Amino acid sequence: MEISAEQRLFRETNAEFVQEQASVPAVRELYRRGAAFDRGWWSTATELGWTSLLVPEEFGGGSASGEGVTDLVSVAGLLGAHVSPGPLNTVSTVIAGVVHAASGGDHVELLESLMAGDTIATWAAVGVSPAWSPLAPGVTATPAGDGWTLDGIASRVEFAVESDVFLVSAKTATGVIEVLVDAHAPGVSVTSTGSVDFVRTFGDVSFSAVHVPATSLVAAEAAAAEIIAHQTRIANLLQVAEAVGAIGRVFEFTVQWGFDRFSFGRPLVSYQALKHRYADDFLWLEASRAILGAATAAVQSGGEEAQKLVSAAKSYVGDRGVQIVQDCVQLHGGLGVTMDHDLNVYLRRVMLARQLYGTPREHREVIAGLIGI
Questions:
Q1: DSSP alpha helices (H): ranges in 191-271?
Q2: Of 254, 251, 270, which is closest to residue 262 (Cα–Cα)?
Q3: Over pLDDT 70: what percentage of the chain?
Q4: Domains with residue ranges and CATH for the chain
Q5: Are 139 and 153 in contact (CB under 8 A)?
Q6: What is the mean predicted confidence (pLDDT) over 12-21?
Q7: Is 292 helix (H, G, I), strand (E, B) or coil?
Q8: What are phi and psi of 206, to 5 degrees?
Q9: Measured between alpha carbons, how far is 123 from 128 in angstroms, rounded to an integer?
Q10: For residue 34, what is the DSSP state?
Q11: Beta partners for 149?
């Protein structure tokens, strides 16, 4: 796919920045310190325009190429290639919901703060059920005065501890609404939970008689389902892009290892049985890139096939991605299973990406429903 000069400059600038400040050594240092990401680094990253790509120009956003989704996917792929830290996915998903809201209060100040990197936001979408079900959330909203009272638990909330604002999906007597909640509001508590990723943290957020005013509304019952569907598409698209970026980098250094490592006087890549494995992994990688490209184009254009293609991408990459990286571990031999090798960091990121915002099986069920099976 051809890219414009603006997109090329955007990607080259981002690549240089990430390589210098957010590659694997930085991730390991954050893990050693017990930190998810550095807010100063994130603020600098937002100056490159990462958080403005989904925001309309009238609110101070936009992209030089005019294709915000495409540019955002390229950033996610770059972060995946370096297993970089940062709340790109969570902040972008919240922004996607806020800017597509058909009703609710004026959230321009929040958008400006998110774009500047001053505020970190995340989506509190599902309850304790293992299924990805944002239309059946674990938080209830009861009308109270000029707003609602929230009770319940949002589970598996990404960067819950680090976030300043939660976009909460909550069920009412007549449907689902989405509201913004200050992370430090009375009645809100966060419990950190485990994560397989070095710098991708999660937590459970409890709401006990938390009052939110009517001005916090992002989506009422009538519009919430479509907005939640759009947020899910954006979240999955970025997750797939990150996984594909990670898989591509793993395959790249695995092939290089095959040329550098000799066995019985010959490089590993010269053995026919291993050549077949390299070929299979390469074909699966190219197929992953192709389905990601198709899904990105559909979401960018708002095409009718967007949901189907995003789910197809998540299903395919979710399954094949882990398989490719696991095979690369085996192709490295004993070195590949050590904590010191970068493969360990990449495998964790790809395995986590497989489970977030719906498993491959759940997305195959979505596709089945869309095509009438």
A1: 221-260
A2: 270
A3: 98
A4: 5-116 (1.10.540.10), 121-222 (2.40.110.10), 223-370 (1.20.140.10)
A5: yes
A6: 92
A7: helix
A8: -100, 140
A9: 15
A10: T
A11: 142, 211
Residue with tokens 């930085």: 26
Contact 168, 124 (CB under 8 A): yes
- For residue 287, what are its two tokens? 């197929």
Q: What are phi and psi of 223, to 5 degrees?
A: -105, -15
Residue 127 CA neighbour count, 13 Å, CB half: 13
Token reading at 205: 């957020």
d(C-alpha 68, C-alpha 70), whole Å: 5
- Please say whether the beta carbons of 311 and 368 come within 8 A: no
Q: Specify the 3-state DSSP secondary structure of 126.
A: strand
* 140 close to 201: Cβ distance less than 8 angstroms: no
Question: What ranges make up the beta strands (E) of the chain?
Answer: 121-124, 139-144, 147-158, 165-171, 176-182, 188-193, 202-213, 217-219, 262-263, 266-267
Span 129-161, pLDDT tens digits: 889 999 999 999 999 989 999 999 999 999 999
Structure tokens at 44: 């600098």
State pLDDT tens for residues 101-136: 755 557 999 999 999 999 999 999 999 988 999 999
Q: Are 242 and 349 in contact (CB under 8 A)?
A: yes
Torsional sign, CA 238, 239, 244, 249: positive
Quote the tokens at residue 178.
Answer: 């989405």
80, two tokens: 């995946």
Residue 63 phi, psi dihedral angles, 5° rounding: -135, 150
Encoded amino acid at 144, one letter: A
Residue 101's closest CA among 209, 218, 212?
Answer: 218
Contact call for residues 126 and 134 (beta carbons, < 8 A): yes
CA 310 from centroid of its chain's CA atoms: 13
Q: Distance between CA atoms of 224 and 29, rounded to whole angstroms?
A: 40
